[in-house]
Design brief:
Length: 126
């Protein structure tokens, strides 16, 4: 019984994922919202300031000059959705649960200036 509990704890630690992204070179921690508050294809988080942010499958990526998006598409198993400017793109992940991790891995790539989820925010009526 003790071995089973230990195995379950180790397995849950392997699959747990910190929720964060990079903004202006700094790590921003996100707090996942309860399952009930999730929409189809969107996972909601809250930052430390209390802002609610939705994440879908989209990532905003800015490449360094003279870099191509094509090698990144294959390397990170992402698809090109839209070219915004000469070096800014919207790419998509296969699954919304991969968006944060993929954005963080892209951010660490030497050809990328920035990469973060294409956040959704709740509409605020004035």
């Amino acid at each position: 019984m003790k071995k089973l509990i230990l195995l379950m704890l180790v397995a849950s630690g392997l699959y747990s994922q910190d929720s964060f992204y990079y903004k202006n070179g700094k790590k921003v921690t996100l707090i996942p919202k309860k399952r009930i508050e999730r929409s189809v294809g969107v996972i909601y988080y809250q930052d430390k300031q209390g802002n609610e942010l939705g994440i879908n499958r989209e990532i905003l990526v800015k490449l360094k000059d003279d870099q191509s998006i094509k090698p990144l598409l294959e390397k990170y198993a992402i698809s090109l959705k839209e070219k915004i400017t000469e070096n800014i793109y919207i790419v998509t992940c296969k699954d919304v649960t991969l968006t944060l991790d993929t954005a963080n891995r892209l951010y660490g790539d030497s050809s990328v200036i920035y990469a973060h989820p294409n956040f959704l925010r709740k509409k605020v009526f004035r």
